[in-house]
Design goal:
The complex is a heterodimer. Chain A contains three helices and 17 strands. By secondary structure, chain A is mainly beta. Chain A has helices at 60-69, 167-170, 262-283; strands spanning 4-5, 10-11, 21-23, 28-30, 32-33, 43-47, 53-55, 74-76, 84-94, 98-108, 119-127, 138-141, 171-172, 177-182, 185-187, 200-213, 223-238. Chain B is α+β, with helices and mostly antiparallel strands. The chains are: A mainly beta, B alpha+beta. At the A-B interface, strand 15 and helix 3 of A face helix 1, helix 3, strand 5 and strand 6 of B.
Chain lengths: 284, 197
């Protein structure tokens, strides 16, 4: 497995007047992962390239997902920010049953950005395996926002009861930073039934952007300005099993040594005997 | 061509000798194989450790809910083992299952959020919003929900339990090694409560 700390550079993204800079200078990047040896699963997990794709703003699919899940809210597009998004970790991981990507980043706000208290992460997932079978293939993450009211379209919430999901846990006001962490997981799909078939797969892509909201609610809805961000994600490819799975779903590894069957020996020795007798009879 | 043809006598001799040799060899091999041990397992699968009493799930009403009919519920995972453990937190639904019954033993109707939570639990371990949580020895990880967001609670008496099912790690869950990992599946205590008119 390749683990490389990128001693790269600050990547200058599209030449526009203002945009987020993506910093990968200290990213722990693991592009691929495989199931542990002995799992009996022939698969690979591959994350998207580093640096992740820069997003100039919310796509039409993004807006559509927002409007579907948060009716009555107003989403304005067109702006971009000036800060720096440093990616700390971007790594594929794999277990016996599935895999995913770990993505850890922190945004350093610029002086010209909206105030940190008003900045929020919004993430849209596009996948062929939605977390909730009732969810569409593109949806705002979390699909249902942390079971709290009012429902807000943000990844971390300013009203969360759970400190782990409360935005204040991830904002550092003295450093003007806002961190983001996610580690999605999907089970391996069923393998192809034949070596002549293409691998089966899972695709999971996140469009992660920053947004501002003035914390004003009117009738349970508000107005949000959408800015720029990045797209990251992973794919899982499953190949035909190279060996039978003895312990399906079990985390241990098992290997059985091969003992040739008696019939093999008999066949070989019979052949030798035949050759000996045949040769003798010819000589005789 | 004539020289290569085998007389019947020699052919018969060959067949009999082949059969005899086969029988002798087969009997020797069978004897040898019987004395051999069964095919060996080279790497024995690790067994699930004895987790009895090490990880406990308990539920209680949040202090702001007592007597307030707001049904804000704490679900606590207590680590009574002597080692810190890590699990992947991903919203309440993916690893918690709420077990609620009314007086007639029926599950009340779920809200949209309750149905979503149930779908996540059934779809486990798939997850989107995730973060690893370390629970130190003797410590508790708490998640708080409002039960009324999961069920349409009509007046009546109810029995409530919560099931917690998750994979625990003794090390970084995202490292390539993942040596020390095991499953827990625990039921909480029971809470009995009444929704008044």
């Amino acid at each position: 497995m390749l683990v490389s700390a990128y001693t790269l550079f600050v990547l200058n993204v599209p030449l526009v007047d203002a945009s987020i800079l993506i910093d990968t200078s200290s990213t722990i990047y693991v592009p691929t992962a495989s199931p542990p040896p002995g799992s009996g699963v022939n698969a690979s997990v591959i994350v998207k390239q580093l640096p992740p794709d820069y997003l100039g703003g919310a796509s039409s699919d993004f807006l559509s997902a927002l409007n579907t899940q948060f009716p009555g809210w107003t989403f304005n597009t067109g702006g971009s920010l000036n800060g720096t998004l440093s990616i700390n970790k971007y790594q594929a991981y794999a277990t016996n049953s599935g895999g995913g990507a770990e993505f850890d980043a922190v945004y350093l706000k610029s002086m010209t950005d909206p105030s940190l208290i008003n900045l929020h992460w919004i993430q849209m997932i596009t996948t062929n395996v939605p977390i909730d079978p009732n969810a569409p293939n593109s949806y705002i993450d979390p699909f249902i926002a942390n079971y709290e009211y009012p429902q807000l379209p943000f990844y971390y919430s300013p009203i969360s009861w759970d400190p782990d999901y409360h935005e204040d846990t991830h904002k550092n006001y003295s450093l003007a930073t806002y961190s983001f962490y996610d580690a999605p997981f999907r089970n391996y799909p069923s393998p192809p039934t034949s070596f002549f078939m293409p691998p089966t797969g899972v695709s999971w892509r996140a469009d992660l952007i920053l947004a501002s909201w003035d914390s004003e609610l009117s009738g349970g809805t508000g107005t949000v300005n959408l800015y720029d961000g990045v797209s990251w994600g992973f794919i899982i490819q499953r190949y035909p099993n190279s060996s039978p799975s003895f312990y399906s779903g079990y985390s241990g590894s098992i290997q059985i040594s091969a003992v040739p069957e008696p019939s093999t020996f008999v066949l070989v020795l019979s052949g030798l005997a035949f050759l000996t007798v045949f040769r003798k009879s010819r000589v005789g | 061509m004539k020289n290569s043809q085998m007389p019947y006598k020699q052919l018969l001799l060959f067949m009999i000798s082949s059969i005899l040799i086969s029988i002798v060899v087969l009997s020797i091999l069978q004897k040898e194989i019987k004395s051999k041990p069964a095919p060996s397992i080279i790497h024995e699968a690790p067994s699930q450790p004895d987790l009895t009493g090490l990880y406990k799930m308990s539920i209680s009403w949040h202090e702001s809910s007592v007597g307030q009919q707001t049904y804000r519920l704490n679900a606590d995972l207590l680590n009574l083992s002597d080692k810190p453990v890590v699990f992947i937190k991903s919203g309440f639904g993916s690893n918690h299952s709420i077990m609620l019954e009314n007086e007639s033993g029926q599950e009340p109707p779920m809200t949209k959020q309750g149905a979503h939570a149930k779908a996540l639990f059934e779809n486990w371990p798939n997850r989107d919003q995730s973060l690893p949580v370390i629970v130190l020895s003797g410590n508790t990880s708490r998640e708080t929900i409002n039960l009324a967001h999961f069920y349409e609670l009509k007046p009546g008496k109810y029995r409530l339990k919560v099931r917690f099912r998750e994979q625990l790690w003794l090390s970084d869950p995202f490292s390539s090694k993942q040596q020390d990992t095991f499953m827990i599946d625990v039921l909480s205590n029971e809470l009995n409560f009444e929704v008044k008119k």
